[in-house]
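new request in #modeling-help
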Amino acid sequence: MSQNSLPKLSLFPLTTEVDNRGHLYIGGYDSVELVREYGTPLYVFDEFTLRSKCREFQAEFTKRYPETLIIYASKAFLNRALALIFKEEGLGLDVVSGGELSVAQSVGFPPNKVYFHGNNKTTDELKLALNWRVSRIVVDNFYELDLVNRLAEEMEIVQNILLRLTPGVDPHTHRHTTTGILDSKFGFPLTTGQADIAVAQAMSASNLNLLGFHFHLGSPIPEVSPYQLAIDLALRFAKEMKGKRDFHLEELSPGGGFAVKYTLDSSTPSIANYAEAIVSKLISTADELRLAYPQLIVEPGRAIVGQAGVALYTAGTIKEIPRIRNYVCVDGGIGDNVRPAFYEARYEALVANKVSEKESTKVTIAGRYCESGDILVRDVALSPVLPGDIIAIPVSGAYSIPMANNYNMVPKPAIVMVRDGKAHPIRRRESYQDLMSLDVI
Ligand code: LLP
């Protein structure tokens, strides 16, 4: 392997290398070879990076606050292979649907580490969760408070719950992913008095055991101060409820939302920075208010899977509009990664079979879907691209695959896991037959 100092490489998985032909290697495996074997679009996950991030979260939080449970937010990307890895790493799981719950169940994930979130869980999903004896239902609203109590009563069980609070804190994320402000579909607002009523109702419910509070402010949150502000508000509310209702806070979850570096010009707090800010605020405010330290639940999604994933595409059409723009069209796009179109998300890219060549051209990477908005990366410097070259987009591990769709009837990509020079598929490519398999005529 050659020493390659291309700054972009720092965004790729931790095992990334370049050989003397200029081929990108991930997990000790040649990406050009991966493409030959599995085709494109292809999502590659590096097991070493994935496990390292799990361990980094656990280490950074527990060394500051031993009573921490890290629960992975499945929505960022879950399939059975990943669920097994998280189980092995000792993480818990945040699930938001019967589907995510079933994946966890199918790999024997311990239900006593599963938290069920969501603003409109269905009765069937709640029954599934209660039957499986999930650790906590994170109750989002009054309708659900009543529903969970009734279902638990029918099943003659007492269900542990958290209440989701809406603290009224703006995390300065894209508006589509801001959740902690008052005008949100999620949670019980603190400022309207509804959270207070929810505590009273939860405490008097026959089959619910209220253990604490959860909030989630948004995603990705590029600074630590919103967490600190919301922790302060949640603990002051807990103190008020202690005096008013004799409520004892045993558990607090400040949600997820930890940012990752997608582009070289962005800067984000490190996992250690987030841990320090959250824990120090929790301890100082609890001390000030004379509250017992609660169990801390942390719910990272993106920051665990983001950097571990790389998307590989094959370049096809190259359209040059003199003095305007050069488009490189690839065989994926908004079908496998809707984030640029939906959130104006920005990415870097490189030519995976020409990493050592000078990045002398500026291009816009467009997808293959019938939408002008199907642009993956705007104005990125690349080595000169020819049809057949492989385009790699780093930090593709979070929210691409789970938000993938079959627009234009294009099958969803294959996914492989790489480790120590070996690759194994963790999801096969969809076929045209798959696309029609649910149709009835
Ligand atoms: N906990 C709760 C209750 C959440 O709603 C979320 C994300 C998380 C944890 C994990 O957040 P993370 O650590 O991954 O930032 N599709 C968007 C992101 C939506 C996030 C929704 N909730 C995107 O592609 O950026």
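bot summary: The pocket of LLP is lined by residues 73, 75-76, 94, 117, 177, 216, 219-220, 255-258, 299-303, 339, 343, 399 (CB under 6 Å).
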